Amino acid sequence: MGNGITIKEGQVKSVGGMVILPVKEYRRLIEQDVPTYYLKGKAATNLDKLVAEGLKEYREGKTIKANSMSEALKIYAKRKGH
Questions:
Q1: 19, 7 in Cβ contact below 8 A?
Q2: Longest Cα pair distance anywhere in the chain, in angstroms?
Q3: What's the CA gap between 76 and 82, in Å, rounded?
Q4: Which pLDDT does position 82 carry in this prediction?
């Protein structure tokens, strides 16, 4: 093996400790942290309509491609003439 990890004691104290995990385990933990919501009634119907409308606009090429929300808003403003 021969691979080692060096962690400075000052870093551990300043950040409150460290945890070393395999990447696969880290990703599994992150995925579990995302809350799951279940909608019913009018809220579920409204969301279904919103998703359907978004997918339709995507298929029609009416969506904006951007690397960030601020970039998307700038592109949107230019298209709308603001």
A1: no
A2: 61
A3: 9
A4: 66
d(CA 50, CA 56): 10
Residue type, 8: K
Q: How far is Cα 27 from Cα 34, in angstroms, rounded to an integer?
A: 11
Local confidence pLDDT in tens for the 82 residues of the chain: 567 778 777 777 777 777 888 999 988 888 888 788 899 999 999 999 999 999 999 999 989 999 999 999 999 899 888 6
Q: Which amino acid is at 68?
A: S
Structure tokens at 44: 């579920």
**In the 8-state DSSP scheme, what is residue 2?**
-
Radius of gyration of the chain measured on its C-alpha atoms: 22
Using CA atoms, how far residue 32 sits from 12, 36, 39, in Å, is 26, 9, 19
